[in-house]
Write a structure and sequence with these properties.
150 residues; mainly alpha; single chain
């Protein structure tokens, strides 16, 4: 009984992690899936469709990070970040809403958790496309210092 509960919790945690990552990468995932399905519908075969869809989705994710890193114009950076964050926020809204409805919460609680999920997932997508978390973790020469000492 204990192990079945443990494996159930582990499985639910893994599914939530997968759901969160798919929501964060909603735009590259959707473009990769659409291109793979298009290739399959045009008769290119299952293997090529899957490989091309994975490649195109990864390319779109890398392209966003590269463009955000190289472009210096603030309005264009804002546009690039929003292009990635808005679909992720919409996916996060619906994922959180589905999980909250599954837990049979009240209407106000479902709405609040849905918007909270949209903000968290959209903000995470923005941070990942901007490379914010990697830059701050690597570039700080004195990670032990507080913010006041900089």
């Amino acid at each position: 009984m204990f192990f079945s509960t443990l494996f159930t919790l582990f499985g639910l945690g893994a599914l939530c992690w997968i759901l969160f990552n798919l929501a964060v990468y909603a735009l590259p995932f959707a473009i990769g899936l659409t291109s793979g399905m298009y290739l399959y519908e045009t008769g290119q075969g299952v293997f090529l469709s899957i490989i091309a869809g994975l490649f195109i989705g990864g390319f779109v994710a890398a392209l966003g990070e590269f463009a955000f890193d190289r472009i210096r114009s603030i309005p264009i950076k804002l546009a690039i970040g929003l292009i990635y964050a808005i679909p992720a926020g919409i996916a996060g809204f619906h994922a959180a809403k589905g999980l909250a409805e599954f837990g049979s919460a009240g209407a106000v609680t479902i709405t609040f958790l849905s918007w909270l999920g949209a903000l968290v997932v959209g903000g995470t997508a923005w941070a990942r496309v901007s490379g914010w978390s990697e830059v701050n973790a690597v570039s700080d020469p004195h990670p032990h210092r507080s913010f006041d000492e900089h």
